[in-house]
Amino acid sequence: MAIYALTGFSLVSLLSFGYLSWDWMKPSLVADVAMDPMEKSLPPAFARPPHIIFILTDDQGYHDVGYHGSDIQTPTLDRLAAEGVKLENYYIQPICTPSRSQLITGRYQIHTGLQHSIIRPRQPNCLPLDQVTLPQKLQEAGYSTHMVGKWHLGFYKKECLPTRRGFDTFLGSLTGNVDYYTYDNCDGPGVCGYDLHEGEDVAWDQSGKYSTFLYAQRVSKILASHSPKEPIFIYVAFQAVHTPLQSPKEYIYRYRSMGNVARRKYAAMVTCMDEAVKNITWALKKYGYYDNSVIVFSTDNGGQTFSGGSNWPLRGRKGTYWEGGVRGIGFVHSPLIKRKRRTSWALVHITDWYPTLVSLARGNLSNVPGLDGYNVWPAISEGKESPRTEILHNIDPLYNHAKYGSLEDGFGIWNTAVQASIRVGEWKLLTGDPGYSDWIPPQTLTNFPGSWWNLERLTDGLRKSVWLFNITADPYERYDLSDQRPDVVRTLLMRLVHYNRTAIPVRYPAENPRAHPDFNGGAWGPWASEDDAEDWEGGGELLKSRNKKKKCKICKLRSFFRKLNTRLMSNRI
Question: Which residues, at least 6 apart from 432, have a Cβ–Cβ distance to it below 8 Å?
Answer without folding.
Answer: 396, 399, 401, 402, 405, 416, 417, 418, 419, 420, 465
